[in-house]
Amino acid sequence: MTAIHCTEIGCDGYYEDGWCNVCGSPQPxxxxxxxxxxxxxxxxxxxxxxxxxxxxxxxxxRTGRTSSTQLATAALGSARTAATGGSRPTRRVGTSxxxxxxxxxxxxxxxxxxxxxxxxxxxVMAVAExxxxxxxxxxxxxxxxxxxxxxxxxxxxxxxxxxxHFDFTPALNPGDVVGGQYEVVGCLAHGGLGWIxxxxxxNVSGRWVVLKGLLNxxxxxxxxxxxxxxxxxxxxxxxxxxxxYNFVMHEGAGYTVMEFVGGRSLKQILQDxxxxxxxxxxxxxxxxxxxxxxxxxxAFAYLHDVGLLxxxxxxxxxxxxxxxxxxxxxxxxxxxxDLASAIFGTVGYQAPExxxxxxxxxxxxxxxxxxxxxxxxxxxxxxxxxxTSLPSVSDTPVFQSYDSFYRLLAKACxxxxxxxxxxxxxxxxxxxxxLREVVATDRGPGSPALHSAASxxxxxxxxxxxxxxxxxxxxxxxxxxxxxxxxxxxxxxNVSDPVQRLSALxxxxxxxxxxxxxxxxxAIEAGRQDILSDTLAxxxxxxxxxxxxxxxxxxxxxxxxxxxxxRASFNAVYGQVPGELAPKLALATACERSDEAEIAESLYxxxxxxxxxxxxxxxxxxxxxxxxxxxxxxxxxxxxxxxxTRSSYVDARMMxxxxxxxxTGDVARLSQALGSVQTVVLPPLQxxxxxxxVLGSALEAVVTHGPVQGVQLDGVPAHEPELxxxxxxxxxxxxxxxxxxxxxxxxxxxxxxxxxxxxx
Length: 760
Description:
By secondary structure, the chain is an alpha+beta fold.
């Protein structure tokens, strides 16, 4: 069978039976391997694609062969046993190495401790009862079944406020057989919608199953929810969602039969951490919380794709089992177009608009954001003070440490549902980006980026600038949305002159968003402010949330020399796509140009250590800011982040040398200046000028303070006679490379001045 790579961002899984075996996302229609091979028992890879034809341009000029399969290969596998005359093995010998087994959680960016797979029998409650603090009337919500005057509360009775009957006693007992098939073992848990029982399936090898019934059969809404759950769950089939096997009746009550998921819920994991910390709240590290949410998001995408809403998401509803997770307890699930069914939610997690307008994709995204906040904050007021808001940044250290994380939560939990992420896919892309930044931050100050990542929205930065902030057209470009109606037409618009390109864009078959974006960027290039303003105004009139219009507006403001206005535009874009680095780089650029050095530095740091594509332009920005405030060590460290494989590496080493060359009086620093460029090839004129500056400063220092023992500059001891000889030679070399006549004479005159005079 041919293995097909998952197409989700950051996932390294493969599709199995239509679903990714790592992230759980569905296999796109028509997905096929780009260059897949099937491994055969003969130890030879059989190619899946035949050559397109006999085109000579596809062939080697010497052999006519185009495929590596025609080359000789060393014998391995069954081919080797046949060649050596040994007995043929029936299967390949395994290995004890686990290096090829990567954990699912964390997208390869971070590690989450696995949760032990729970023994089902150990999960059974010793005493199956609802704690008094959780007993409320199913009709009016009043407290019922509570201890009074020293007399324990009753688990069944009538509400003293409304008179309705309540009963919190489990309906099933160990040994009961439900549906003639499922033998009850005991109770696992209780919740707002019903008791959950552990049972064995007598018809399927005694496998463990879970039965979920009603907590209080007298509650009509709860009964309706159970029936609704049966209908919806019969349609749900996803590897990240608990599997539903059956729905059976027993003594007039209905029970959903589902798989047993042995593990720990996120709520239990938080409780375990609190217990281990002597009862003090111990939230999850931000990277682990993001990893959990990132892993479960494909389940939400699937539900939304099939027209369902989860409605009541919270930490209780995610079970970690080993290094995988599952979404459980779908009792509140309803169809997107259902306007009549009872709505179930939890205070502190339910979106504020739900009681008035009902649930939606946006309200599901809100519950995800609130769950994420609960996992990482000591969120004592999530059901009171902050029931529909987040704590302030100034009072929350986590938000201060991870600015992008705060922006992510702020958008996911926006009071207006229209301000939230539009889809789970949009949210997932930003969660992945924020996770990457959080992991980079946790590595510590000055850590370089370990890898590069492809953004779905922006191209990688095309330019590195050592001496000044990036210009507007050097910032990352927007990627064209391949789903835009005019995407293929735009690929043919390759006119270099911006004025002519504007004319060509007027002939577009569809005035789509991508056409307008291209028109706006071309108008900036052509200096046509009128066209730019009209185009951006049209885009924002059609969609006030179109952040790409704000991006182009910021580029135009930068081009027009208004970095303060550009700052506001890029900051708005940052809030809309908090996991993207391009807005941070642009905002840092605008801040550097508008004397907001501290903010610029913090943003450059994030860019430099999060993505190798951004390291060089951010490192140069850091070097400029730090050197301007006299932080030579910080500037040098920033320049050391530029990798030797980067085209701007020579510029980084030269800038490093120039900064060290300014350290007059410190001969050791001056020695390091010349050492900075030993590993690169500089233009002769540039190298000669650097040697003149460094040797001249060193000579001045030695004349003033005396020789420095044990220090050499380009092989020259830090003694006055040797430095004079070296500087004279450097000046004469620079003069020979200088084209300007007057400058050449001045250099020769200077060489005479520094020349070491000898006596005969």
